[in-house]
């Protein structure tokens, strides 16, 4: 539910500020998101006995921005009692900027480790096929086979020996 509300705020931000001016807003929001890691900060933001005006002042001190648009966004979130949405807004804004710039993260999981040349080749090949810029993260897993996932694009490429054997067996049985 929070993601849907955050998506509306992000859509309004991108429409009103434009793609180039949203990047500095994102940096300011990332400061506030890092403050949410503090348990004390979360308590203050969620506390019903602290006024919304004091919460807004606290967040504005963290932001340290003279940008009127950023200050208005924080005040609006405080007025609507939605300051707790800032981490979701920040994440949604990062995803939106990545989509605008066509920059995505691909997760490669395999049992083996690959050398840098192979990883670079995989990254370049998939980036070229998908017409995007990719950053490749390699992680080791216990499962046999190789799996590459680009979540934001909904792309998954996988190869496993078990699946290959079962498909081959099924193909042979259908041939008879």
How would you sum up this structure, described in words?
The chain has helices at residues 2-17, 19-35, 39-46, 52-63, 68-79, 86-101, 116-130, 161-175, and strands at 103-110, 133-140, 146-150, 155-159. By secondary structure, the protein is of the alpha+beta class. A four-stranded mixed beta sheet has the order 2-1-3-4. β1, α7 (116-130) and β2 form a beta-alpha-beta unit. α1 (2-17) packs across α6 (86-101). The longest helix has 17 residues, at 19-35. The radius of gyration is 22 Å and the shape is elongated. It starts with a helix and ends with a helix. The relative contact order is 0.11. The model has no long low-confidence stretch (mean pLDDT 87).
Features:
single chain, 176 residues, alpha+beta, four-stranded mixed β-sheet, 8 helices, 4 strands
Provide the fold topology.
Layout (H helix, E strand, L loop, with lengths): L1 H16 L1 H17 L3 H8 L5 H12 L4 H12 L6 H16 L1 E8 L5 H15 L2 E8 L5 E5 L4 E5 L1 H15 L1
Parallel strand pairs: 1-2
Antiparallel strand pairs: 1-3, 3-4
- Terminal-residue CA separation: 52 Å
Radius of gyration: 22 Å
Beta-strand segment tally: 4
Largest sheet, in brief, is: 4 strands, mixed
The dominant shape is: elongated
Q: Please list the strands of the largest sheet in the order they lie side by side.
A: 2-1-3-4
Task: Bin the strand percentage.
Answer: 5-15%
Average predicted confidence as pLDDT = 87
The ordered string of helix (H) and strand (E) elements is: HHHHHHEHEEEH
* Total helical elements: 8
Low-confidence stretches: none
Helix content: 55-70%
- Structural category is alpha+beta
């Amino acid at each position: 539910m929070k993601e849907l509300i955050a998506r509306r705020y992000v859509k309004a931000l991108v429409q009103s500020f434009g793609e180039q001016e949203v990047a500095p807003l994102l940096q300011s929001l990332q400061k506030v998101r890092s403050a949410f890691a503090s348990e004390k900060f979360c308590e203050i933001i969620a506390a019903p006995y602290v006024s919304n005006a004091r919460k807004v002042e606290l967040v504005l001190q963290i932001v340290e921005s003279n940008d009127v648009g950023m200050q208005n966004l924080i005040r609006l979130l405080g007025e609507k009692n939605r300051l707790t949405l800032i981490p979701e807004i920040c994440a949604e804004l990062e995803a939106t900027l990545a989509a605008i710039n066509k920059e995505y993260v691909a997760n490669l999981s395999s049992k083996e480790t690959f050398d840098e040349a192979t990883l670079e080749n995989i990254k370049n090949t998939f980036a070229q096929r998908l017409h995007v810029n990719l950053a490749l993260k390699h992680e080791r897993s216990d499962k046999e086979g190789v799996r590459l996932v680009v979540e934001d694009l909904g792309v998954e490429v996988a190869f496993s020996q078990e699946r290959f054997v079962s498909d081959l067996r099924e193909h042979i049985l259908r041939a008879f």
